[in-house]
Amino acid sequence: MKTNILNRIVEPEALQQSGDFLGLTLTYPKELTPFAYTLNNGTVVEVWDTGVLCLTPANPAGIDLVLSSGVHGNETAPIELCAAICQDLLLEKIQSRHRLLFLFGNPPAMNSAKRELVDNLNRLFSGHHSKGEGEPSWERQRAAALEQYVLRFFNEGGANRQRLLYDLHTAIRGSQFEKFAVYPFLHGKPWSKSQLQFLHACGVETFLLMQTPASTFSYFGAQSCGAHAFTLELGKVRPFGENDMSRFADCDLMLRALIVDALPALADFDESRFNFFVVSRAVNKQSEQFELCFARNIENFTQFPLGTVLARDGDIEYRVDEPGEAIIFPNADVALGQRAMLLVKPVSVAGQVSD
Ligand SMILES: O=C(O)CCC(=O)N[C@@H](CCC(=O)O)C(=O)O
Ligand SMILES: [Zn+2]
Q1: In sequence order, what are the residues at sequence separation of 6 or more whose Cβ sits closer than 8 angstroms to the Cβ of residue 57?
Q2: pLDDT tens digits, residue range 316-351?
Q3: Is the beta carbon of 182 within 6 A of some atom in ligand 1?
């Protein structure tokens, strides 16, 4: 008998009764034979793989939405949020008007309550999964498969539909801005006002505007699929069952409103209600001596006085060298060569947003 961390055993034939796609995913974390059925409301339910669920309403309205969570296995609140929405759809408590693709990114890591098994899945997209040597790790195989599923989903919808990809995460540390988004590099195109307004209504007021390509899932969504795509950091990492889901209520409400096509009128775009940042420096770990020089409870977006030593890597010292520079995603426990911290600074988006 297979077990899972939530002690729910769900077999494929039981999905129709339980609507528990998370339970099914965790029962079969590495592979699942595809199957499909149709709900009474006409929605076609297709399980393409473990953690990959496509819902197609009988007469889809104009949005194709990918909602992913669990790309990092221990970031449980977004997984619980998506699982609940998914269950309500499968049990026909709500009905989607749009095509949807739900993804639970890394089910075996979810079962192990770990960020990853071998490789950080969110460093393997846009082909980076093919760069390693030898037998590909689970995450390398999964990144390649997820790319294909997302391309298939958007291609089956066709070019004339709005493409959205929200990749839901929680951060290792607390944050001075509890919810924030990484807005992937758009190669000079303007940032989307309507997306900023929608995400603001989800409780996300702070945006890190990236200026370079990345190997993340959201960059893949933006660059390779032409989607409005974001990494959404919705809170702090906690184990399954220990999340205060009331802190995700706005996000839950707005995602459900989007799905059932009942979005309220959104407030006009007003830059003063947002915080925008750009990366001033990316610090990559170069040696096993890499260490952070501040405490574990120091939060994302904390600023330090000019000259403060933030990290050491062998002989290299990283100091604050611009006023207003703040830290984000500091993590000494990454693989060599990978991002161990970003330094960010505030910016204005005046003249760089459009409808
Ligand atoms: O809290 C942390 O250190 C990491 C939280 C996290 O997983 N963040 C994402 C951001 C992805 C992006 O830059 O779009 C990641 O590191 O993969
Ligand atoms: Zn994450």
Answers
A1: 41, 42, 43, 95, 96, 97, 98, 99
A2: 999 999 999 999 999 999 999 999 999 999 999 999
A3: yes
